Amino acid sequence: MNTLSYKTVSANKATVNKEWVLIDAENLVLGRMATEVARILRGKHKPDFTPHVDCGDNVIVINAEKVQLTGKKLTDKIYLSHSGYPGGQKTQSPKEILAKYPARLVEKAVRGMLPKNKLGRQLFRNLHVVVGSEHKHEAQQPKVIDLSTNN
What we know:
This protein is an alpha/beta fold and about 150 residues long. It has helices at about 30-40, 75, 95-100, 100-110, 120-125, and strands at about 20-25, 60, 80, 90, 125-130, 145. The protein has five helices and six strands; from the N terminus they run βαβαββαααββ.
């Protein structure tokens, strides 16, 4: 066996095949959906996955306001933010976020599952969360993925 004929193929920006994917968040559990979205954004489902390259797909999440949370997370979970000033810490529950900005709940969940570096920030730009079932990316002809059958 000639071991020199086996070469590790590393993807780069020119060789990556990026697609558009559509996910309907209606009646999906937030965390379980977010892990799958982060996996697709990262490109871990592809055979030519390379950790330091953006080889994931562009993801459109529709019906963000209809996402589900299990247990008492809707009222008991707390999201913290700080302005940087003394006494500038603010708390919000998912119920408050869902009432005012439903898309942010999905964005926060997915962002927390991406790498905390330049690549993670670039990958997050490939996520498009939409409230309602209409989105402006029809021209890209996204492939529909049904996550409700995987769970």
